[in-house]
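2024-03-11 09:14:02 DEBUG pipeline.ingest accepted 1 chain
2024-03-11 09:14:02 DEBUG pipeline.ingest length=315
2024-03-11 09:14:03 DEBUG pipeline.predict start
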Amino acid sequence: MNPCEELANRIINLYVLHPKVEEIWATLDSIRFHRSKKKSAPRHLFIVGQSGVGKSEMLKKYVEHNPGYIHVDEEGTEYDIKPVVFMELPNPFTILEFYQTIIKALGAPPITGVPRIGDVKRRVFTLLKHQKVEMLILDEMSYIKNTKYVKSSDSMEALKHVSNEAGISIVCVGTPDTEELQKSSFQYYRRFSLRKLLRFETCNEEFCNFLTAIEGQVDLPAPIGLGNMETGYPQLLHLWTKGIVERVHTLLIEAFKIQGVLDEGFNDLSKANLTIDILVKAKQITFGSDMDDAEFEKMLSKEDRVINKKKVALS
């Protein structure tokens, strides 16, 4: 791979492990350590945050950093060991589809035909045991909250049953409104500690450090000061993205795309640069008009009010 291809690959696979993410990763590591080393009862976690702040990507990257392996037992049987498993809950959510989705997440074929719930559950618990699963990450908890087919309490009981039977930790991931599930009963509140992954609410040092880390990972031929307030980049990027990680990534990738950096035949590293004009074009392509920005700000403020209201209630 030549230098131009390497640069394009770094841009496309852009991901920064910033302090907010590192804190949650450390919590996940702690949960797994205490379970495996101290043989204590599994701890569980609820992770909430606005759409686009990077919850799913953060957890998929965590799975990548904690890969499994193939184990061959004394009889020559191979097992695909998966210490950490990420899955998106089924939509619409039902108990049967929940178990079937676990089977698929473990890499096994789902039970076909008209399966009985007991057969599917036994298959799930057998796989979880043989594949030595320590942690099951469940994304899109809003599917439980919004389903018409199962009461939220019954859905949460299904999650608890999986943990109890398999002895694994459960990590629930969702938007701020799904925090209600964690607080729906004292046993869930006690079992699931809460972590929040929020947007960068202001254009401050933390946001600038995030942008500096992005520039370091992309590793352009010449520095541009992406996180330096004097360049004006941080102020514009925060104004347009509202401090949401996904929007920052999308905007920057589009800016490099406009310059042809991501084209297959790109061969001039000197063109791999960012200017305000290029960012303006990228913003227009990715986010649309100022009217769209105003509506986005309105919706985001609504989510912020939900989060702040919960903060006040807990204080």
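2024-03-11 09:14:41 DEBUG pipeline.report Confidence is low (pLDDT under 50) at residues 311-315.
2024-03-11 09:14:41 DEBUG pipeline.predict end
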